[in-house]
Amino acid sequence: MTPAVLLYLGAPAVLYLITFMTPAFGWPLAGALVLLLWRAMRSGDGDGGPRPPTLFAAAWSLPVLALMGFGTDHFNWDWIKHWALLNTLEAQTWPVQLTLQGEPAFLRFYLGAYLVPAGLAYLTGWSIVGCTAVWYGLGLALAFEGLGRGAGRLASLVIPLFLTMGGADGWMQTLLRPEDRPISFTGFHHEWWANTLLDHPLQYSAPLSQLLWVPHQALPCLLFVGLLLRLRRPADIGPTVLATGLLALWSPYVLIGASVLLAAQLLEPPDLRHALRHPSLATTSCGVFAAVFVGLMAWTLSHQVPQGGLCLDCVGERLTRPGAYVLFLAVELAIPALILRGRLVQNATSVAALAILTLLPWTAGSVPDAAMRISMPPLVYLFARSALHITQLAPRRLAPAVMAVATLSGPTAWGEATFHLEGGARHAALPAHDPLAARSYVVWARRSDYAVTEFFDICGWKWRPQYFSSTPPPTWPGLPTTPSSR
């Protein structure tokens, strides 16, 4: 599946380089990427060339798509943004420039998940909803196919196990609620349970929550982890490095976590270390392209970068009250700790994942995005390893392992699924002063034709700098002086 994954991750990058970048370096890089993708498709790098996902993997993408909202027509709060950006990309000339609040605005948000469905809808006249569903469905099928590789006789158990895994958030939110405010597992989003203990917004999202709220970042993360789990031979280095570099367009935060895991994976096995010292032309080409592409995206996205992210100055104060942070980590990492036990520290990649997840809570800033998204690759990797390990257990140990997952994180997954099926109805039924009646729980995207101005009117204009700069990024081509107001 490596060639298919590279094609999926690389298609938006080709579009971006041609349309958003100055032609002097955008077009040559697009040509180089097309050549690398063509080589991967032709050779398969020992993976047999691109193949469609199995029916089982494709079938599992359908219920996840339905939970996203494609089956119910109500999408969670984050989808107001997703639809607004998708509609803008479909309607506007690329690179996108608008007038917002009387000022020029240049779209510089990471666009990997949006460019293909928006471009397809524009060229064909098809529904943006349908194009997005097909694009995300294909990504889900590829991700689930990659996860199931090497699962052995119980491959059909890997995907549902993986989607059930997460922290014991449901239990904690229920236990921490005041006695006069009972809560059930059904229909509630549980992942902000630690806010009152930590005095700052922090959550580690379970794979299912990642896919339902932020599929534009979760899908490339799952695809990367699938490649990482299969990185065993020198021939796999180039494609995996290339895929990692392409994450810069999809999610730079995911790229940070993924890069640490990739480095750990490459530095441990002797044959991979030897291949790094004596790289082939194919590996070198992939590495050079990935480095240049990451550099260009960093140059683009750092232009008028908004404040937020991490807070290194907060570490000292938080170390004076470690109990809440230790509890947070214990709750979120209970599944891999119980399932993998000693195997959790048997390889460098797992140790790197644990190190990232352990450090992030102490450094998380007031804007939660950095910690929430950097944590995605290590979380997904550890949950994927746990699911694969369970499928290889002897029958007498299989049932207790499955029961542990169902007991600890099952309520969290059940709450998330029913929360989306019910459109947040149980949160909306709570008194207005209840913290679980927050806007992000009760305001839903009930349509798919939002404009950018509606997105900011609903969610807040404070988010404008995260998505738009007031001057075009330095890597963009020359633009007309009068942007559109659409």
TrEMBL record:
Membrane spanning stretches: 13-41, 53-71, 120-142, 154-172, 211-229, 241-267, 279-301, 322-342, 348-367
Alphabetically sorted, this entry's keywords are:
Membrane, Transmembrane, Transmembrane helix
**Which domain of life does the UniProt lineage start with?**
Bacteria
Coiled-coil residue windows: none
Q: What is this protein called?
A: Uncharacterized protein
